[in-house]
Structure formats: C-alpha cells, structure tokens
Amino acid sequence: MQLLRWRRDVRHFAPDAVPEQDMHELLTCAALAPSVGNSQPWRFVRLRSVTVRDALVAHVDEQNALAAERYQGQERYETYRKLKLHGLREAPELLAVFCDEKPEAGHGLGIATMPEALRYSCVTAIHTLWLTARLRGIGVGWVSILDPAAVRAMLDVPADWSLIALLCIGFPQDEFDTPELERQGWQLREPLLDRVFER
Ligand SMILES: Cc1cc2nc3c(=O)[nH]c(=O)nc-3n(C[C@H](O)[C@H](O)[C@H](O)COP(=O)(O)O)c2cc1C
C-alpha cells in the first residue's frame, strides 16, 4: 500500500544516470507481467539517439501547445500552461513501449474477439516496470501528449507495432505522496465510492 500511495508520475528528474543493472532489472520485471495468451506483446525501445530525443521533445512541446489551446478562454488555461507535463529533456533514460499487434507468441489465444487485450497486456508490463522502478527509488513519467504515428515514424519501428507509452525514467528531484496535478490545482483525487458500481 505504501509503495502504491507513493509511486507518483515523475516529471522533475535529477541528472544522475540510472545504473545499467537497474535498467536491466526494470525490463526483466516488466516482462514478468501477465499477457493475453502469454503473447508477451510488449516491445521496448531504449532511446540512444540525441537527435531523436531532440525531435521527440520538439514534437511533444508542439502537441502540448496545441493541447493548451483547447483551454483558451477558460479559467484552466493559465493553470494548464504552468503544468510541467513531461521530463523528456532531463530524464536520463527514455523508453518507448510498443505493442506488437501480430505477435507469434500466444498463437492468437484470447484476441479473436478482443484484440485490444494485447495492448492491455503491455499496460500491465508498464505498471510492473513502474512499481519496480519506485522500489529502487527510480521515477517514471508517462508521456502521452503526442501523435503516436509521428513517434512511430521517428523511432522507425515495424508497421505492426502500435505505440503504448513514451516513458521518462530517472531519479526524481523530490518525493511526494500526492499527484503533481493535485498539487498544481488541476485535479483532486475523487472518492473511490463514486467509481464503484453494483448490478
Ligand atoms: C496512460 C497515461 C498517460 C499519461 N500521460 C501523461 C502525460 O502526457 N503527461 C503527464 O504529465 N502525465 C501523464 N500521465 C500521468 C498522470 O497525470 C498521473 O498518473 C496522474 O496525474 C496521477 O498522478 P500520480 O501518477 O502521481 O498518482 C499519464 C498517466 C497515464 C496512466
């Protein structure tokens, strides 16, 4: 419970590199996640190229500016503009997680009527990686303010791979037990009971 309460999405990173052994453990643990038909559809791309990182930063900044326009004229506009919504510049490690939509493993089990189960499997891997990272004091930030097709093209991945997440990984500058969006006045956590139903 303590780990889950303290996990946090991190956008402010210290400059310290993540030891290679930790990165190896994060990926190893992620790959222990459950997956439909045991298909293990996750594909991890570790970003090494400075040029591609720069292109990703420019792309996400551009998408973020477009997203901000949606709030223009609203009270939220200024709050949105002040939010830090990615640590792509600072994070020592960037990891793109893709889903292989046609994996050989699993032989199609469980995806005839629900192909999206492949993508859900990738999300379980991401959450496993996230918790594994936090156990080691490493922070993870999920970036989704992007055009998946543009990021796929930048990373030059096979046509059957769809983008699930772009993750920033590194040591957090600070630790918090409340979400940044809560602290910045964007969105409070709401009562669980409002989200539990019975039929
Ligand atoms: C699918 C997904 C996409 C997200 N995309 C972004 C993002 O683009 N930028 C960002 O700052 N946070 C992003 N987040 C993090 C959420 O804002 C964060 O999880 C939420 O505010 C709760 O905070 P906490 O994770 O610290 O508990 C994303 C989280 C998820 C699960």
Can you tag this structure with a few keywords?
199 residues; alpha+beta; NADH Oxidase; four-stranded antiparallel β-sheet; 7 helices; 4 strands; 37% helix; globular; binds flavin mononucleotide
Describe the structure.
- By secondary structure, the chain is α+β, with helices and mostly antiparallel strands.
- It has one domain: 3-Layer(aba) Sandwich (NADH Oxidase).
- The chain is 37% helix and 14% strand.
- It is built from seven helices and four strands.
- Strands 1-2-4-3 form a four-stranded antiparallel sheet, with helices on both faces.
- It is globular.
- The mean pLDDT is 97.
- It binds flavin mononucleotide.
- Flavin mononucleotide (FMN) is lined by residues 8-9, 11, 85-86, 142-145, 179, 181.
Give every kind of bound small molecule, once each.
flavin mononucleotide
Which stretches are low in confidence, meaning pLDDT under 50 for 5 or more residues running?
A: none
Integer average pLDDT: 97
| Element string (H = helix, E = strand) | HHEHHEHEHEH
CATH architecture: 3-Layer(aba) Sandwich
Task: State the helical fraction.
Answer: 25-40%
Described by strand count, sense and barrel closure, the largest sheet is: 4 strands, antiparallel
Number of helices: 7
The count of DSSP E runs of length 2 or more, i.e. the number of strands, is 4
**What's the CATH superfamily, by name?**
NADH Oxidase
Form type: globular
Structural class: alpha+beta
Percent in strands: 5-15%
State Rg. Answer: 18 Å
User: What is the end-to-end distance?
Assistant: 28 Å
Strand order in the largest sheet: 1-2-4-3
Tally of domains = 1
